[in-house]
Specification:
Helix content: 40-55%
Strand order of the largest sheet: 3-2-1-4-7-8-9-10
Number of helices: 15
Number of strands: 15
CATH topology of one domain: Rossmann fold
Strand content: 5-15%
CATH architecture of one domain: 3-Layer(aba) Sandwich
Structural class: alpha/beta
């Protein structure tokens, strides 16, 4: 079992992993290009707004040695790469991963295990990462050092499936490497560790998981638009369909798909298939549908206001929530940001509020955000919003239109107060 681990990239994946490794008694070295993140980590302060992570890092102060100096790589038995692999438009950007691997190659030593957790498409570990490491170090993968892939699995804000309770899959270029990798992850993960037969299969797992979700979300988002025209409450239909104990899995419509994974991983699979001579038409359509949802939500607000005789001039629209999902401060690819942009382009005066993102909010509180607004758009269903957005509260604030893009508010109660209500597909 590895005694010292170096985690490259202390972001939404790397920092929780570093904390977990420290909790399990490993010596943890963290490497990041951001000096501010390094300093905060060494002070026991989380740069990510997450109560659980904040408590852990404070408690583990001094047990994670973060640095911007790559020499720490040589001290480790295991090196885990957790740098971002963003999609620029529809094309994967492997730049951060390549730079991280180039750095590792300069300090790689014999016997080390290198695991890529960053999301990639099939073939990257063998065709891109391996040559960089071998050429830069002079060592051979599978014999003198070990290389594999274990796709990251983390769900920020999920109190049930925390990082140590989520099963993991992995594969290395050699049997000995796979054995070492399984020993490492078994020492920190309480859930099952599954060995796959090839690194390409392990790489494919993550993009398939998230593409599956993207496709099914696109399906219900399209149904929402269709059922809206037919006067059918999609939320009721999904509830009814969910009573079937087999052959159906509920997915729910919304304002679009955000985050680092679902909104971009399908593009990795699309790009890889294109290079092999195949076109994923179905995946492209799902991306188009989900990318269109912010415009659909903005359109709902515009039409609902028009229906009660209000135009954009001097109309105040409050957008609640900037993060892409509840309980976190992550705005990566958040549909909220596009909704705000589109509403402003239509001429509406927009004020935004998110309790997790005070610096990016236009107002300081929920009361200030709601009071006097003509239209309220619930874009992110933070618990703090759900606890207070009662029909009585909305009526007292003078709200005239509610756009519930998450279908979580009291539709009948709001309408009973004389407030126009519109959900996504209801």
């Amino acid at each position: 079992m590895a005694k010292t681990v170096c985690i490259i990239g202390l972001g939404y994946v790397g920092l929780p992993l570093a904390c977990l490794c420290a909790e399990k008694g490993l010596k943890v070295l963290g490497l990041d290009l951001n000096q501010g993140i390094v300093e905060k980590t060494n002070q026991g302060i989380s740069h990510i707004k997450d109560p659980v992570l904040e408590e852990k890092l404070s408690r583990l102060k001094g047990k994670i040695a973060a640095s911007t100096k790559p020499g720490a790589i040589r001290e480790a038995d295991t090196v885990i790469v957790c740098v971002p692999t963003p999609a620029r438009g529809t094309k994967p950007d492997l730049g951060p991963l390549k730079k991280a691997v180039e750095t590792i190659s300069k300090f790689l030593k014999e016997g080390q295990l290198v695991v890529i957790e960053s999301t990639v498409y099939p073939g990257i570990t063998e065709d891109v990462v391996r040559p960089i490491l071998e050429n830069g170090s002079g060592l051979k993968a599978g014999r003198e050092f070990f290389l594999g892939h274990c796709p990251e699995r983390i769900d920020p804000g999920n109190e049930k499936f925390t990082i140590e309770r989520i099963p993991r899959v992995l594969a290395c270029l050699s049997k000995e490497g796979t054995k070492k990798a399984k020993q490492f992850y078994s020492s920190i993960i309480e859930a099952e560790i599954i060995q796959l037969s090839s690194v390409k299969s392990a790489e494919a797992v993550k993009v398939v998981e998230n593409t599956f979700r993207d496709i099914n979300i696109a399906f219900v988002n399209e149904l929402a638009q269709s059922f809206d025209k037919m006067g059918i409450d999609l939320a009721e239909v999904v509830k009814g369909a969910s009573t079937k104990p087999f052959g159906y899995m509920p997915f729910y419509p919304g304002p679009g798909v955000g985050g680092h994974c679902i909104a971009q991983d399908p593009y990795y699979l699309i790009a890889r298939a294109e290079s092999a001579g195949f076109e994923h038409r179905f995946l492209r359509l799902a991306r188009e549908i989900n990318n269109s949802m912010p415009a659909y939500v903005a359109g709902l607000a515009e039409k609902a206001l028009q229906d009660i005789g209000i135009g954009p001039e001097k109309t105040v629209v409050s957008v609640l929530g900037l993060a892409y999902k509840p309980g976190i401060d992550d705005t990566r690819k958040s549909p909220s940001l596009e909704i705000i942009r589109l509403l402003k382009a239509k001429g509406f005066k927009v004020r935004a509020f998110d309790p997790f993102l005070p610096k990016q909010s236009d107002v300081a509180s929920l009361d200030e955000a709601v009071k006097g607004c003509d239209c309220l758009v619930l874009a992110t269903h933070h618990r703090a919003f759900l606890e207070r957005l009662s029909p009585e509260f909305l009526k007292a604030a003078g709200v005239r239109v509610v756009i519930d893009s998450r279908n979580v508010l009291d539709k009948e109660g709001i309408r009973a107060k004389g407030i126009a209500y519109k959900g996504v597909g209801r």
